[in-house]
């Protein structure tokens, strides 16, 4: 049985957190409804589907996504209130050490971390699939691949290139396939236009140039106006919505990353970031909890307002560092594992410094 002090602080922690979470999610839903009301009216989604499928999963996803930041605000608010009412001073003066005071905070944080980890790795992928399926069916326009000069390794040593893809017409422009053996190109097929036939998964190539390269340096050249062939790739393989990462379970995500690496996909980094964030975000709760207690436990002349302002400044800095590190992974080639954990490492150092100066 936990001591009275622990039960009191845990009740304060969890009660304040879920109250703030409910308020933030209610406000988020109101803003989202006002933004999407026209889309809902134009879609064929029923009111029940909008409430249960869309907003049920909307609250689950965004509530969990920002939970570690809301936990930080929670700690700031209720700890600052305890400090302003001199309750913390009484507790510390009564012989309770600051380290002992942290115990109920970290018990509460652990409960929320476990919930977040279970949601991230097991529950949310299914929830996100339902939410994104709703988007695809009722809200999103048809998916378009806007990138140019795309390439995929469709088989070991076989690489497909496309200057551009039009999914609406299942057509790849300036399409080519290269076959490589022992580091040398052995065959290349170039076509002005390749049309995918969904009925039998075949491709129709228009204005084809077929070149073969031999070991003696000779090559053969053949041209055809039209050629029907089977190629183990479909147009959508050249581009996926990044949101699909959120619909994959842990094992599925690992398998998908390995498959995309074999294809030479430049989208791999987004999926690796998603994989690592599922663990790094919940564990940031411990760091932000320590920062929150260290800041708010000291009675300040500015009161709760000053502590909340400091909390929001720290959150903004955390989000900024998180965004910069993510961009470093996607655009500068930084390892996704390192980039995802950089914000936690930076703020762990800050947490230790603030803890050393906290009111003991």
TrEMBL record:
PANTHER family: PERMEASE, YJGP_YJGQ FAMILY, SLR0882 PROTEIN-RELATED. GO terms for biological process: lipopolysaccharide transport. GO terms for cellular component: ATP-binding cassette (ABC) transporter complex. Keywords: Cell membrane, Membrane, Transmembrane, Transmembrane helix. The keyword Lipid metabolism does not apply. It is a multi-pass membrane protein. The keyword Nucleotide-binding does not apply. Pfam families: LptF_LptG. Its main location: membrane. This is YjgP/YjgQ family permease. InterPro entries: LptG/LptF_permease. It is found in: Cell membrane. The chain crosses the membrane at residues 12-31, 65-83, 104-124, 280-297, 304-321, 333-355.
């Amino acid at each position: 049985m936990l001591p009275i002090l622990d039960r009191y602080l845990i009740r304060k922690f969890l009660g304040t957190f879920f109250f703030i979470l409910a308020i933030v999610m209610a406000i988020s839903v109101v803003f989202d409804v006002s933004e999407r009301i026209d889309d809902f009216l134009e879609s064929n989604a029923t009111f029940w589907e909008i409430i249960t499928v869309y907003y049920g999963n909307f609250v689950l996803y965004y509530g969990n996504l920002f939970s570690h930041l809301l936990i930080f605000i929670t700690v700031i608010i209720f700890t600052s209130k305890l400090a302003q009412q001199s309750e913390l001073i009484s507790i510390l003066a009564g012989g309770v050490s600051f380290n002992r005071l942290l115990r109920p905070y970290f018990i509460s944080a652990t409960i929320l971390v476990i919930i977040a980890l279970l949601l991230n790795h097991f529950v949310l992928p299914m929830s996100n699939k339902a939410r994104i399926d709703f988007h695809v069916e009722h809200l999103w326009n048809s998916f378009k691949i806007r990138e140019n000069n795309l390439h995929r390794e469709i088989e070991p040593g076989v690489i497909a290139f496309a200057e551009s893809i039009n999914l609406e017409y299942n057509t790849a422009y300036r399409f080519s396939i290269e076959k490589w053996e022992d580091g040398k190109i052995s065959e290349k097929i170039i076509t002005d236009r390749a049309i995918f036939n969904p009925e039998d998964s075949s491709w129709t190539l228009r204005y084809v140039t077929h070149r073969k390269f031999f070991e003696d340096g000779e090559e053969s050249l053949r041209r055809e106006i039209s050629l029907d062939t089977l190629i183990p790739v479909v147009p959508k393989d050249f581009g996926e919505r990044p949101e699909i990462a959120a619909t994959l379970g842990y094992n599925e995500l690992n398998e998908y990353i390995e498959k995309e690496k074999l294809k030479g996909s430049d989208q791999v980094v987004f999926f690796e970031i998603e994989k690592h964030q599922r663990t790094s975000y919940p564990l940031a709760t411990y760091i932000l909890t320590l920062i929150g207690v260290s800041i708010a436990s000291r009675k300040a002349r500015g009161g709760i307002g000053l502590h909340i302002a400091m909390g929001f400044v720290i959150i903004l800095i955390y989000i900024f560092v998180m965004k910069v590190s993510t961009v470093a992974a996607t655009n500068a080639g930084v390892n996704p594992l390192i980039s995802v954990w950089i914000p936690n490492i930076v703020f762990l150092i800050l947490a230790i410094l603030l803890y050393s100066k906290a009111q003991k």
